[in-house]
Amino acid sequence: MNLVIDASVLIKFYIPEILSDRAERLLAQVEKKDIDLLAPDLVYPEVGNILWKKQRLKELTRSEVEEITDAALSLPLKIEASKSLLPLAVDIAIAYGMTAYDALYLSLAKVYETTLMTADRRLVHILAKTDLKDSITWLGSYK
User: Fold this and answer.
1) Would the CA dihedral through 91, 94, 96, 101 be positive or negative?
2) How far apart are CA 32 and CA 77, in angstroms?
3) From its phi and psi, is residue 19 left (phi > 0), alpha (psi between -120 and 50) or beta?
4) Assign residue 120 a region: left if phi > 0, alpha if psi is -120 to 50, beta otherwise?
5) What are the CA-CA distances from residue 18 to residues 8, 21, 22, 23, 140 (Å)?
6) Alpha-carbon distance 107 to 105, whole Å?
7) How far from chain centre, in Å, is Cα 80?
8) Contact present, 103 and 89 (Cβ < 8 Å)
9) What SS3 class is residue 138?
């Protein structure tokens, strides 16, 4: 099974936060090869920005940032180029009133006919009453 994840999920594999327990269950499924993870190449700059911010706020040490960076880069994650997803992402962003960044993840889910798993409740809420509601799942509902 393929599943698209965004940076809000990926970071929870390595940093204890709300919903990290759900992310750890998902990661266990990935390690057992029950689930294949997908993401646009945008995921790496977004993860880097999260790590930068947490280090700047002194929530992580430089050493922890380096360890998490290495772990994230070694995660078995199929990466798709944003360039090919951009036309669909722009259409989705305009049609549904969301950022093009979020729309890139949804575009990838649409292309692979799968679901985007996110920890971003706001994004889930935006799409809850649209025809894209089945293309997104909140990490908090993962069992």
Assistant:
1) positive
2) 14
3) left
4) beta
5) 11, 8, 9, 10, 9
6) 5
7) 13
8) yes
9) strand
Q: Residue 128 corresponds to which tokens in the numbers above?
A: 């809850």
Map tokens 């971003």 to a residue: 120
pLDDT tens over the chain, length 143 residues: 999 999 999 999 999 999 999 999 999 999 999 999 999 999 999 999 999 999 999 999 999 999 999 999 999 999 999 999 999 999 999 999 999 999 999 999 999 999 999 999 999 999 999 999 999 999 999 98
What are phi and psi for residue 8, nearest 5 degrees? -65, -25
Answer yes or no: are the C-beta atoms of 96 and 130 closer than 8 Å: yes
Backbone angles phi, psi at 23, to 5 degrees: -65, -40
b/e map 94-133, b = 16+ CB within 10 Å: eebebebbbbbbbbbbbebebbbbbbbeebbebbeeeebe
Residue with tokens 């990935």: 30
How many residues does this entry show for the chain?
Answer: 143
